[in-house]
């Protein structure tokens, strides 16, 4: 088990390194000069050249990359124009936002976490529950209703669902305030009421997919020989379904859930945009639009960290659920 | 006649509703098994032998299956009994061993835990430790070395033969009076097959249980069965003691089964006679005798085989039943002249 874990973590670190190199290269391969985007008004050639010097953009790529990585692990001095000494983990200085990138991230990351984590809990409970119930009640009106629900959810888009929810719950019925972010530590009630629409919209779309997936998995598992064995032993239905069928059916759902949550934590661009909440996703899109290299690097790296960590966690969970994986 | 047989099946009919039509998987089958005795049910896939065993345990999906007839377990009819009451019988009074132990055991739980679970469900007062001890004992009794260590392993860490032993240990953990073994050796090597059959016989001597052994392999049947029921297309075509059915078979289908199995003692050049064609569709069974399209002797009695379903009737010896339109003397003649020297029929 320990060897398995070490191997997985080692390959995760390699993946992250590769992502950082690729992002770096991709950005410099863009046809646009990063400096023009970073220089505010009154740009003349000297000023542009100065910015270029400060950013180290005239250095060879490899030096720049080394400097960036050094900043993350040990911190570095960015020069007076960029806020001076930048402690580890230093993600650089954004000319566009005029602040250290780490400060931007520290502001927007909790927003995305606040959207994704409760939504994920909701969609997993709802989706898996619905899928299981409809598999066990196959062919009944309940099953048909669940299939209808998941077809609807799977064919709708978030900006549409979000807009309808906004229109009905906020503007017509006035049941909820206009979506906004408040820290959970300042006011938990306001935190929840400001984000509940985003949770509902995300949960609706994702739970539809999970309902379908877990229904299919459960149906497949119910036809397995070991489920028949469990019944032949004389186990009552709740134990046959819960202990024997569910555990086998849930495994692929866990895998996909881990990857989905990991990807969502990297930024829920459409959700954030639909509800006008500034999270990691919107920050990343705005950074790309402004050609804000340090912010782009940071958001991409953080998204990659989430995906990679989610992958490792999924592997560990899988090994915990399925003893056959542990040997491999 | 003293005690009635532990299991009595009378005129059992099992039907499934499917989109393509009604499948008559079992169509009027009767038999009985006493404690300490073994009934072999033989037939090709789709002959209704597994469906019969699942019906006895009440494992069919109630919504899509219609079962009629009587299944008397210790004198009590389980057909139409509420699911909860059948459940209490399952695993305690009647247990089942399945064909492929790898897929029949749960891959995520240790073997010991699965056996202990089967014990605890019918012994609610038994503690965790007692159930585990019972599981380890059972593993030892079915001949698994180091049972305490093996109990903590998963099915994938067992070999095929050991897995089937574990499966048998699980089925016998509550001392059931009826054990149904559905193709218990089909997924195993030939050498392991013999061990498993020996084990079943030993355990039967020890527990005095009634055993139904379902198989398509006549070699297996000849080793352990006291009585044999041959099924074709959901019906019984021949029924009698093992000696009668295997040594003096009366039905052309049984002849086909016997003469298509090579014999170790036979001369290698003796031709085997395979049964031509394939098993019939249970939705659209051939008219008359269901076996007639594949029977080499069907045209010997005019149109009767095509038009009239043969009844299961006493053959020449008492207790030997056969469902065939051929006259008894004709059958005896064909058997001695054409069949008796081929394959295991020798």
From TrEMBL, chain A:
Q: Which GO terms describe its cellular component?
A: plasma membrane
Instruction: Classify the protein's membrane topology as the record does.
Output: Multi-pass membrane protein
Q: Where is the ABC transmembrane type-1 domain?
A: 109-318
Q: Where in the cell is it found?
A: Cell membrane
Q: What is its main location?
A: membrane
Q: Which PANTHER family match?
A: DIPEPTIDE TRANSPORT SYSTEM PERMEASE PROTEIN DPPB-RELATED (PTHR43163)
Protein name in the entry: Peptide/nickel transport system permease protein
Automatic annotation (TrEMBL), chain B:
Main localization of the protein described in the UniProt heading? membrane
Alphabetized InterPro entries for the sequence: AAA+_ATPase, ABC_Ni/Peptide_Import, ABC_transporter-like_ATP-bd, ABC_transporter-like_CS, Oligopep_ABC_C, P-loop_NTPase
Q: Which CDD domains match?
A: ABC_NikE_OppD_transporters
PROSITE patterns attached to this UniProt entry: ABC_TRANSPORTER_1, ABC_TRANSPORTER_2
**Keywords associated with the record:** ATP-binding, Cell membrane, Membrane, Nucleotide-binding, Transport
| Domain spans labelled ABC transporter | 7-258
What kind of membrane protein is this, topologically?
A: Peripheral membrane protein
Q: Among the record's GO biological process terms, what is one?
A: peptide transport
Q: Which GO terms describe its cellular component?
A: plasma membrane
What name goes with this protein? Peptide/nickel transport system ATP-binding protein
Q: What is the organism of origin for this protein? A: Micromonospora pattaloongensis
The organism's lineage is: Bacteria, Bacillati, Actinomycetota, Actinomycetes, Micromonosporales
